[in-house]
Amino acid sequence: MAEVELLEIDANNFSDRSHVIDNRWTPLRPGERMSYEGWTVDDAGEKVKHLYVATVTDLTKMIAGVRVLVLLEEDFQDDTLIEQEIAFRAQDKDGNVWHVGELTEAFDGDDLIGAKYWFPGAPEGARAGIKLVADPKVGDPELSQGYAPPPVSWTDSGQVTEAGLVVSVPAGEFSDVIAIDEHDQETEEGIFQTKYYAPDVGLVKIGFKGDDPNKEELFLTEVIDLDEAGMERARELALEIDGRGYGYAATTPAQQTEE
Question: Is the pLDDT of residue 13 over 50?
Answer without folding.
Answer: yes
